Amino acid sequence: MEEPYGGFGSVNPTGHGALYFNHICAASPTKLRPCHPGEMGVVVSRYHEVKGYDWLAVPLVPYLYAVDRIEDAPLLADTAMRDRLRDAYRRAHLEGIAPDEVTKSGEHVTPKGDWYQLVGAAYDRRIYGFQAETTPEQDERFIARYNDHRNISHFNLFFHNCADFSRVALNSYFPHAIHRNYLADFGLTTPKQVAKSFEDYSKKNPELPYTVFVIPQVQGTIPRSHGIDGVAESLIKSKKYVVPMAFFYPHVTAVIGATYLAQGRFSPPKDAEIVRLPGEDASVIVARRMERKSEKDEAATSTETAIGKVARNRGSGMN
Q: Which of 137, 242, 249, 316 is deepest in the core (most CB within 10 A)?
């Protein structure tokens, strides 16, 4: 679940949805394969008008930071550095997806279009990850399915968007886990609703290793991303929408507000682990957290026991 940013993010604050697989890698931006030892996995998502493809896959590190190695990712960045890193990665790896534009004078320049969304996402926005354990057999089926199907774009903001891609893919792993909210989102699939559905699914299936992490936006002078909203939530929170709606259509506004309060509220856990680069299996993360909790509980019990002994000794001395 990726926060919106920029002018379009203010108008449409639903953000972007993408899927990260730590055991699936990319043979190319349009071909998936199992990862080799030491590889970090791939991010797969649906984009609008990128070479006519329905989905594209980019390795994790370049997706986040537009470099091949995490050691080369800057801790501080401005727009010039971000654009330079993106274009360098495009020229090295994505010429088939986003080739240079040639000017009338014959000069090769950076192309326009949405290709830039494929790399360097962490420069523009904060990213939340909702992670569950998958099996090698599930990953193999996913690879076969998406490699075999025609990869042709039918992008539609209302019914075939990036969150719809996540919904369909996740339901192939976890049947009926993700669903649209026909009231709070008016039937659209939003990244926030996908995350909310997945969180609800994890609570109903506590045996599933599940965890949440957050990747901070890279520090620097690039404007910060905005909070992510659902459809009804964005209407209620925006004064430029809710004030005229309340004036002309008070009953409709009240219904939208009640719908959001009843079904649309969702926030990522405040204790989500902050990571620069995810990759560990959910079961490993969950086991480590349980171990830490057990150690804290044991320490607290030992402290209480020691305090109790001191109190009893003092009481015996007074007698």
A: 242
Confidence of residue 270 (pLDDT cuts 50, 70, 90): confident
pLDDT at residue 295, as a whole number? 67
3-class DSSP assignment, residue 305: helix
- For the chain, the distance separating the N- and C-terminal CA atoms, rounded to the nearest angstrom, is 63
Dist CA 160 CA 189 (whole Å): 8
Strands (E), the chain: 19-21, 24-28, 31-34, 42-46, 55-59, 76-77, 101-102, 108-109, 127-132, 210-215, 219-220, 273-274
What's the mean pLDDT in 300-316?
62
Residue 23 main-chain phi, psi, to 5 deg:
-120, 5
As a whole number of angstroms, the distance between CA 190 and CA 234 comes to 12
CA 118 vs CA 69, 90, 167: distances in Å: 16, 9, 20
Residues 54 and 165: their CA atoms lie apart, in Å, by 9
Is pLDDT above 60 for 318?
no
- Strands lying side by side in the sheet with 273-274: 127-132, 210-215, 273-274
Indicate the helix (H) or strand (E) that contains 290: helix 282-318
Tokens standing for 111?
């192309």
Measure the CA angle with vertex 275, ends 21 and 6; round to 5°.
85
Please tell me the total number of residues recorded for the chain in this structure. 319
In the numeric block, which tokens belong to residue 2? 């990726």
Written as one letter, the residue type at 56 is: L
Pair 23, 41: CB distance under 8 Å: yes
pLDDT in tens, 172-211: 999 999 998 877 777 789 999 999 999 999 999 999 999 9
Distance CA 265, CA 106 (A): 53
**What 3-state class would DSSP assign to 95?**
coil
